Amino acid sequence: MEKLKIKILCLTLILSVTGLFAQTPVNLQDPLPLDKDVVYGKLDNGMTYYIRHNENPKNRAELNLAVGAGSIMEDDDQQGLAHFCEHMAFNGTKNFPKHELISYLESIGMKFGAEVNAYTSFDETVYGITVPLENPEFLDKGILVLYDWAFNVSFEGEEIDKERGIIHEEWRMNQGAQYRMMQKMIPALFKGSKYANRLPVGLMSVIDSCEHETLRKFYRDWYRPELMALIIVGDFDVKVVEEKIKKLFNDHPKTVNGRPATYPEIPDHAEPVVEITTDKEAPGATVQMYYKHPMFIKKTVEDYKTGIAHSLYNSMLNKRLTEMTLQPDPPFMYGVGAFTNFLGPKSVFMSIAATTNEKLTRGMEAIVVENERVKRHGFTATELEREKKALLREIEKQFKEKDKLESIKYVEEYKANFLISKEPAPGIDYEYNLYQQLMPTITLEDVNKFAAQWITDENLVVIISAPEKEGVALPTKDEVLKLLTEVKTRKIDAYVDKVIDKPLIAQKPVATKVEAKEKNKELAFEKWTLKNGVKVVIKQTNFKDDEIQMSAFSFGGTSLYSDKDEVSASIAADVIMEAGVGEFDKIELDKYLSDKSVSVYPYIDEIEEGLKGTCSVNDFETMLQLAHLYITKPRKSQTAFDAYVERMKGYYQNRAENPEENFRDTLQCVLAQYHPRRLPMNEEKLKEADLSKAFKIYKERFGDPSGFTFYFVGNIDLKTAKPLIETYLGGLPVASRTETFKDLNIRTPKGVVKKEVLKGKEPKAVVFMDINGDMPWEYKTRLEIKALGEVLSTKLLESIREDKSGVYSIGAYPQMNHYPVQTYAFMVYFGCSPENVEPLTKGVFVEIDKLISDGPSDVDLGKVKEKLLRERETSLRENDFWLTQLKGFDFHGDKTDEFLKYETIVKEMSIESLKAAAQKYLKYDNYVRVVLKPAN
Length: 936
Known about the structure:
Layout: E1 39-42, E2 48-53, E3 60-67, H1 81-88, H2 100-107, E4 116-120, E5 125-132, H3 136-151, H4 157-174, H5 177-189, H6 204-209, H7 212-222, E6 228-234, H8 238-249, E7 273-279, E8 285-294, H9 301-325, E9 334-341, E10 346-355, H10 360-377, H11 381-400, H12 407-418, H13 428-438, H14 444-454, E11 460-467, H15 477-486, E12 514-520, E13 525-530, E14 535-540, E15 548-555, H16 566-579, H17 586-593, E16 598-604, E17 608-615, H18 620-632, H19 638-652, H20 659-671, H21 683-686, H22 691-702, E18 709-714, H23 718-728, E19 752-758, E20 765-774, H24 779-803, E21 810-817, E22 823-832, H25 837-854, H26 858-875, H27 879-891, H28 896-899, H29 902-907, H30 911-921, E23 927-933
Parallel strand pairs: 2-6, 7-11, 14-18, 19-23
Antiparallel strand pairs: 1-2, 3-5, 3-6, 4-5, 8-10, 8-11, 9-10, 12-13, 13-14, 15-17, 15-18, 16-17, 20-22, 20-23, 21-22
Helix pairs in contact: 1-7, 3-8, 9-11, 9-14, 10-14, 11-13, 16-19, 16-22, 18-23, 24-25, 24-26, 24-30, 25-30
């Protein structure tokens, strides 16, 4: 539940613009309005509310409570109590005693974690639930939940004491190298400020010993109406919801003499601060540079224009950094640069690079030099023009999809409008209009000037983190400061933007026609067979107005190659992606696609190969062109191969020292009886990669697409799509070979297998149990196994978490495999203290034994049936669900008539049927348990 919100801007925007709508002229000094489609108000007691009607998903409502108070409001003896309050909201309220709140929400089909959750940050605490709407009582009770969270959490002494252990386990699971280094990073970033010692998880000494009344006092002090907002979005009558809110929440009195709710300042500093930290278990080497500035808050149209210019700067800089990773000897594995809101009253310009152990200094130098290059020479006119088109294309896509936007996205928008950053929420119609008018007025000078404003010596914090091991090139503080000074006078050439002007495909392939068509009326899809043997399955939907998804596969994969070629086979598709396609290298291809909303990538898995893609309606032809080229004209590039291998080296070189990675690698080996194909990748194994082999394997896997089936789902016009499909897929050359995968005889061990991994120094353990066996690949059986996983997960949470306070999270996650043999596994995963491994493992088996002997209770049966039906209801209106399902009909041989029986099968589930399933599939005469414990 705890969420440390250090926001990093997502920076790659790929899209284009095609037209304008009637524009209303704007004045730069005009204040930004609030979205005209949201009902906004304040109650008499000062509580804020946002209410909006939205029909995606249908018959659902998102109900959120945003509290403008987090760990920063804690006194010295309260560290961790903001987070503790959040936990207690799920452990009894006036109208939902004890654990009735979770039980009730599960009874109407909502899942704890996915649709019932909360988080605590430095500056905020936010609660959210999703409720179905076919019964008016569900909405009424959902609003009552928000009311109780705001004003009526019970804080019973017994529940407080039980929850201490759960919070302790949450804290325990976060312990490790990353957390240890963060504890040094945060004080350096916020030196002299309260933020420096207010990590939301708090101090365990406070959690373990605080008085009950101290916790209640924090809740009374900060859960006040004027500090809270209700954000409710869904498929309902807004006026009805507004009246319900006014009637219920206005009863709570206005705050009298409340504690001042202020955000502490983060002091300025004239000289750069450098923090260098190492850890033997660190997963990698990074340099992070934070240039702190006053928070940028958009209030006027002029501010909004500045925000667009910020986005242009961020995007252009990140394109340059990405280009640097494609060099034969890249200075870093990845680099990120962005101006964004940070914590408290601060925005930051940040530059981050993750490097191999040997290149830490070089990686830092590379981002410092690139920042100086922009500061000195700016961006180019062609870069700016390209990114303008990309941003315009993005806003156009949002405008086209405005009626299909998910409710949760509106919730996030209004939440940001209420909380500390005060992000504007003027609505997509208004924003689209602003983009059309403001974008042409943004000049190169408008964007380039930010470098001098952002990149300064004042308020700069440099944080370097790295593994504590031989071979790490760690700079000293003096060397860092010297570099920052020296770069200012270094000769740095201007960036040269290599502009390309050529079509993706110079000459269209010779088309072949659709020879046969089949229609499935019940599920509304068509299956075409082209003359060259390629098959196409298409389903038209209106779930998204500007989205078409694609998938393609054929059997084969890496299974067809020897163990000595396995590494080359497994990276072949990635290496091809890094090289570009056709006449375009990767950099040229990215530039060509920058104003389009399209992506396609090839993959080679163990038993199949294929393509995945997505595009806007207007870019459907481009998606098909890319698919055609990845099959017919892959590029062989030594430069791309070397860059890829060098980056991968950085990911693998420290795995052996990281306890969690070591644990996962061991688990993978044990589950496969140490089969050569399941041995972990490492630096030494990576040396087996060979470009010529990888290229040859790729061409073999994609060289004969006659065995491929392509799937398209989305807002696709069949009349327009047919000639394009006939051209780019019908025009694929084929050899008409018949192929399938090879069974590598990778099997889970029989009997009971236990393994311990002794790694790390933190007092924590991780337990993974894999209860497995054979199963028939039948639709009903798969649904029963899924239902058992849901029931067992619920019982484990109730018993192991809530009753025993032994874990923070636990679940039983079913996995079913059709090929090469039909098997299932229930994967039970949890973290705990080392001394609790055995008693909690026994507790898991106790719950399994209950299901085997008694089956689920009436209550639990009702919950799981509701969950499965609710999940199905929303899935049926999602493109990616249908893409997976259509492929499943061919990949697994699933029958459409079985698919249509889903509701019937679920509704007919009974205590006896799930008890019988538990006796078949939860018996634990075959299971693997791997445990991570500290080395000492």
